[in-house]
Amino acid sequence: MGADVFHSEVPLTVNGEARRPTVDHRSTLLDVLREQLGLTGAKKGCDHGQCGACTVLVDGRRVNSCLLLAVSLEGREVITVEGLAPAGGDLHPLQRAFVDRDAFQCGYCTPGQICSAVGAIAEARAGRASHVTDPAADVGAPVELTRDEIRERLSGNICRCGAYPHIVEAVEDVTR
User: Fold this and answer.
1) What ranges do the domains of the chain cover?
2) What is the dotted CATH code of the domain comprising 3-83?
3) Can you give the pTM of this predicted structure?
4) What gap in Å lies between CA 175 and CA 102, rounded to an integer?
5) CATH number of the structural domain 93-175
6) What is the pLDDT of residues 6-49, one digit of tens each?
7) DSSP 71-131
8) For 167, what's the count of Cα atoms within 13 Å in the CB-facing half-sphere?
9) Where does the record locate the signal sequence feature (predicted)?
10) Neighbours of 92 (CB within 10 A)
């Protein structure tokens, strides 16, 4: 068996750009993003899907990129924190809110927090309930992002510095 048996070219779109990295079948999306594509915003925290530092969006849904095999992403769209901002150098509204609210200290978790917040906002707008959503709420209707909803939806992203109050305020700023 040749070495090519364990590598495949994977066509995907990353931050709006068509890419075709050749990946080892054991490589995670996080490793391909950081090591092959030079996108170092997503961080390797726990490498077990427990901290959320590696959160990115795949087809608009938030994922822990340390758990997702890159070879499984053929034809998918990946957005990292580097790809959130519109062209022209402006920050994404959540990135701006994080800066304005000082919603970080060391900043290690910030890219994952921001990507997770983008996904959480989209989920709420699409009417996806969380554990704290009122059971009497209309099924499929947009969910209001109260402080409790924001905290619940972002609970998979850990901030060792404890910047949670400012993170919640930043998300509130964008959703109001």
Assistant:
1) 3-83, 93-175
2) 3.10.20.30
3) 0.94
4) 17
5) 1.10.150.120
6) 999 999 999 999 999 999 999 999 999 999 999 999 999 999 99
7) GGGTT-EEE-GGGSSPTTSPPPHHHHHHHHTT--SS-SSHHHHHHHHHHHHHHHHTT---T
8) 30
9) none
10) 18
